[in-house]
Structure formats: structure tokens, C-alpha cells
Amino acid sequence: MANRKTKAAAYGRPDADIPEMTAADFRKARPVKDVLPGLVAAAKRARGRPRIENPKQHVSLRLDATVIAGFKAQGPGWQSRINETLTRALARKSKAKSLRGRRERDDSLDC
């Protein structure tokens, strides 16, 4: 292999276009929030997906293997389908409970 002279890295040498800051430069410096408030506001904005009012919670749940296999067999979105199924079951249960309570009140009025 031929001997080649390698150049020193450019980032290690002083640059005439950007001189080193002096003590006077530091005294004149102002906080970035005063100089570029729009940039600071943009940097503080939340990144990524917007937050939702009722975020789903991560839980560890043990289900029968047949239940998991049945939902997975229906294709992608099986976890969402389990959530929908449980939500519907909860709504049915609370509706049945309110109807049962109403019947009990109506029965007590018959006396």
C-alpha cells in the first residue's frame, strides 16, 4: 500500500470565518429565548403523536390460549378486537344492572 499523507481534520483547526469568542463577546451575548423566542417555542412543542384524552393503559393479562388463538386467527388488530369485545360486554353488564335496579324499584312501588 502506498504511503499517503492524511490531512488534519478540518474541525480541529481555527476558522477565520468564525473567530473564537472573547470575553467581550460573552458579555454582549443574550439568552436565545430573548433573541429567538419563536425557535424556543417550537422546540418546546410536544413532538410525536398528539396526546389523547383517555389513553389506553398497558396491562399484563393472562387469557386462555384458545381465546388468543381465536382472535389472532381473525388477522391483524386482534388486541383491538379483544378491547372492543370487553368494552361491549361491560356495557351490556352495566345496562342489565341498571334495568335490574329499575325493576326492583318498580316492584317496591307495587306494594
Describe this structure as you would to a colleague:
- With 111 residues, this protein is mainly alpha-helical.
- It has a domain of 50 residues.
- The protein is built from five helices and no strands.
- The protein starts with 22 loop residues before the first helix and ends with a helix.
- The model has no long low-confidence stretch (mean pLDDT 84).
**Average predicted confidence as pLDDT:** 84
Helix content: 40-55%
Q: Largest sheet at a glance?
A: none
Oligomer: single chain
Cα-to-Cα separation, first versus last residue: 108 Å
Element order: H for helix, E for strand: HHHHH
Number of helices: 5
Indicate the proportion of strand residues: under 5%
User: How many beta-strand elements?
Assistant: 0
What form results from the Cα inertia axes? elongated
Q: Roughly how many Å is the radius of gyration? A: 33 Å
Q: Return residue spans where pLDDT drops below 50 for at least 5 consecutive residues.
A: none
Class based on secondary structure composition and strand pairing: mainly alpha
List keywords for this structure.
mainly alpha; about 110 residues
Short description:
The chain is an all-alpha fold and 111 residues long. The chain has 5 helices and no strands.
Please render the helix and strand layout as text.
Layout: H1 23-28, H2 32-35, H3 37-44, H4 65-73, H5 78-109
Helix pairs in contact: 4-5
